[in-house]
Amino acid sequence: MSRLGTLGARLYRGEVGYDFVAKRMIWYGVSILITITAIVGLAVQGLNLGIEFKGGAVFTTPKTSVSVSQAQTYAEEASGHDAIVQELGNGGLRIQVSELDQTQANKVNETLSDNLQIPVDKINAEIVGPSWGEQIANKAWTGLAIFMLLVVIYLAIAFEWRMAIAALIALIHDLTITIGVYALVGFEVTPGTVIGLLTILGYSLYDTVVVFDGLKEGSKDITKQTRYTYSEIANRSLNGTLVRSINTTVVALLPVAGLLFIGGGVLGAGMLNDISLSLFVGLAAGAYSSIFIATPLVADLKEREPQMKALKKRVLAKRAAAAAKGESAEDAGDERGEPQDDAPGDAAAAGAVVGPRNRGRGRPSGRRR
Amino acid sequence: MAAPNRGRRPTGAQGKPGRALVLILIAMVALTGGMFFAGQLTPRLGIDLAGGTTITLEAKNTVANKNAINETNMNTAVGIIERRVNGLGVSEAEVQTQGEKNIIVNIPKGTNSQQAREQVGTTAQLYFRPVLTVAAGTPTAPQPTPSASASGTAKDGKATETATPPSGTPTATATTQGRAVTEALKAPTPTPSGSGAPKSTPTPTPSGDAAAADKLQKDFLALDCRNDKVRGALGDKAKPSDTTLACGKNSAGEWEKYVLGPAEVSGKDVDDAKGQLDQQRGMWIVTMDFTNSGSKKFQAITSKLSQQQPPMNQFAIVLDGEVVSAPSVNQTLSASAEISGSFTQESAQDLGNILSYGALPLSFEAQSTQTVSAALGGEQLQAGLIAGAIGLALVIIYLVAYYRGLALVAILSLIVSAILTYTIMSLLGPGIGFALNLPAVCGAIVAIGITADSFIVYFERIRDEIREGRTLRPAVERAWPRARRTILVSDFVSFLAAAVLFLVTVGKVQGFAFTLGLTTVLDVVVVFFFTKPIMTLLARMKFFADGHPWSGLDPKRLGAKPPLRRSRRASAPTDHPKEA
């Protein structure tokens, strides 16, 4: 771990780092591609909606010796509809029959109980009307809209509106990707999925907030210096909080992974599995977007400010002068590319391993906060 | 509001770590004590973990009434459904509204879920039917046999009036058939089945169909009102236009059976009804106002009935196939009527409610019905707990691997969080009726991550400070304000998500949102009152302060620049203006 610790230190000091911000076009491209894929998948394949969205019944039996195909025959005979039967980890069966109403479902339940020789009260039945899933989904959309509105207002107060916008875009991006994965892989969408999806909201933003907090601090007195442009500062902050982001993501994912393993492995299917699956996908997307999408977006938005434009001019001018004086590239932060107007911050400070820098070019003496 | 904190206000947790720790210790002891005091050592389990049936109903506006969905109507509906479910002999059913137009019915295990499913959510039907015959539904048992599943144990006797001999009131007088019953009971009823002998020979049914009448007569003889299955079937079969059988309870809470004529007036014809105190006579009565068409019908039925001999002068108020009251009529009535008898305030208001809303003010559609056997519930709970244990273990392993000694702080904090969460959940059971369901367990597990995230934010800050070349004690203090801000902002966002979820959703999702919100709040409490003070104390310990390799705070490992003092880094001036 010591190397990790040192790496953390070097990241923190900006001695090493990865230029996330300058390469943002790549990330945007990747994300747009994924988003398009997700939308296409959604349009072409659509979502595999669970029984709750179509109406029907799910019967779960305790351990039984009846085979899957046998149970399917029973269920189809009893209901006159197609039945999907899965074997569960505990030897029980999960029998899904779509488009049943309450009365029919009760009949099927009794018939199954006779055929499988399991008392009725040992069979779990979940009977849902066709509009139940829709109701949950509608409420979810309402909640989503309200939440987004509130969170944008809050982040705009806590940070600034640009960050709020970037966070919102990252959030929508996460949700789109998660829904897209569901469409492409064909996971079943149940109310549990919807719950998981809504939980992603809080989580995905958690990461983003941690990163933005570092960014806000990093760019506090940005106009009082002429060494870095905003994008470069953003990138340094990002690298400085990288360990934090990775750790918080891993730690958030671990319990979800535990849930997923148990939900999928032991119970076969059900609520636990549905919630944890969508959470897992969404969290992974959230971690990616907080680093690769949210921060570069903020940098993009900030660079449009006249103040920042002026700063960039000053920084570049200073670097040009320094270069002319033949000073080492160290101050200029290892300019690998020529300053281009359309790509602020391509003069990356990070990415270079810089030699010992103790020439006493100190920080401005800080104000007491 | 977790407004980002500028300025360093000294917090209670700062500089006086002992005080904060004592506070949280007292809180834990108090909560645990409260748990024992309340005798509630485990959280109340929801239906999906304990077994039972959950039915979610959604109200639909009726065609007649476009905006019938309002709080009053919903509460009335809850009352009616509750009466219905409890009429099945279920004693602990919970019926509650949720959101604007949902009613959730939770029926614990051990009752006939199938029947409950059929009973709940069907629109209640209220009819006024003339009484043709009355008999005792059971042999008189002054004390219901404990074994009988539904013999008078159901709390359904509220809406029956006390029998009073007609007191000569000029209005309809409620009498339960005191005389009829006693006569019927004189007849020896040795049959243990308890089918009472009919007091009078069945009146020819209006249909005049002899065979049908014969069958009705047989059924009536065989009818055992104590069997709730039989009763449920009665209500299902009854067509308003047919002569039918019905059961009802008299004031003594004993079952009686009736042969009833076709419905003359339905619940729709009642405009308004309420139980009120008659000031002059100093007794509770129920007044009814009919709609225009209703009053015509009512006039017709009362003029007919008032001519008859008891028990034929009674009309039965039938709710869902069950007779809730059978007042006798002694004069023709029209637009409004009054039922008097020995009502209590409660029974009068109850009957008034039934009359006003008997035909539920709303129609309901069962959105989802879930029946879980106790075995499966137990399995799910177990799976959830195992998943939680695995998740917790993974998080702890990761933290130990990465943060070494610091992980001790994290683990202690997680334990404190767990104790607080558990005790609060247990106490919320009796407190606000909180029940732990599977999604709520999920929420608690997922929250482990959120809680641990806060520690990571703080630890990383401390390490950053050490990298700056500070010694541990100032590092701990200086890292706190900034970490605190990050934690507050991100926890506030999480809490916002949970709160919005809780407010807009229904059913299971709510349980999930609730635990998420609760744990987020507790996270803030624990970080402020436990993690930070403990960190301050640990910073005074040699093991940590000297940066032992296993403390997770070894400056060398963290890549701090020796010498260990405030070295001046020549990096971005703006990177970390670390000035206290």
UniProtKB/TrEMBL annotation, chain A:
It comes from the Bacteria. Its main location: membrane. Residues 116-303 form the Protein export membrane protein SecD/SecF C-terminal domain. GO terms for molecular function: protein-transporting ATPase activity. GO terms for cellular component: plasma membrane. Residues 358-369 have a biased composition (Basic residues). Residues 323-369 are annotated as: Disordered. It is found in: Cell membrane. It is a multi-pass membrane protein. InterPro entries: SecD/SecF_arch_bac, SecD/SecF_bac, SecD/SecF_CS, SecD_SecF_C, SecD_SecF_C_bact, SecF_bac. Residues 345-357 have a biased composition (Low complexity). Keywords: Cell membrane, Membrane, Protein transport, Translocation, Transmembrane, Transmembrane helix, Transport. GO terms for biological process: intracellular protein transmembrane transport; protein targeting; protein transport by the Sec complex. The chain crosses the membrane at residues 25-44, 140-157, 164-187, 193-215, 246-269, 275-299. Part of the Sec protein translocase complex. Interacts with the SecYEG preprotein conducting channel. SecDF uses the proton motive force (PMF) to complete protein translocation after the ATP-dependent function of SecA. Forms a complex with SecD. Part of the essential Sec protein translocation apparatus which comprises SecA, SecYEG and auxiliary proteins SecDF. Other proteins may also be involved. Belongs to the SecD/SecF family. SecF subfamily. PANTHER family: PROTEIN TRANSLOCASE SUBUNIT SECF, PROTEIN-EXPORT MEMBRANE PROTEIN SEC. This is Protein-export membrane protein SecF. The lineage of its organism: Bacteria, Bacillati, Actinomycetota, Actinomycetes, Kitasatosporales.
Automatic annotation (TrEMBL), chain B:
The keyword Transferase does not apply. PROSITE patterns: SSD. It comes from the Bacteria. Residues 406-537 form the SSD domain. Residues 137-211, 554-580 are annotated as: Disordered. GO terms for molecular function: protein-transporting ATPase activity. Residues 137-176 have a biased composition (Low complexity). GO terms for cellular component: plasma membrane. Keywords: Cell membrane, Membrane, Protein transport, Translocation, Transmembrane, Transmembrane helix, Transport. Gene3D superfamilies: 3.30.1360.200, 3.30.70.3220, Multidrug efflux transporter AcrB transmembrane domain (1.20.1640.10). It is a multi-pass membrane protein. It is found in: Cell membrane. Pfam families: Sec_GG (PF07549), SecD_1st (PF21760), SecD_SecF_C (PF02355), SecDF_P1_head (PF22599). Belongs to the SecD/SecF family. SecD subfamily. Part of the Sec protein translocase complex. Interacts with the SecYEG preprotein conducting channel. SecDF uses the proton motive force (PMF) to complete protein translocation after the ATP-dependent function of SecA. PANTHER family: PROTEIN TRANSLOCASE SUBUNIT SECD, PROTEIN-EXPORT MEMBRANE PROTEIN SEC. This is Protein translocase subunit SecD.
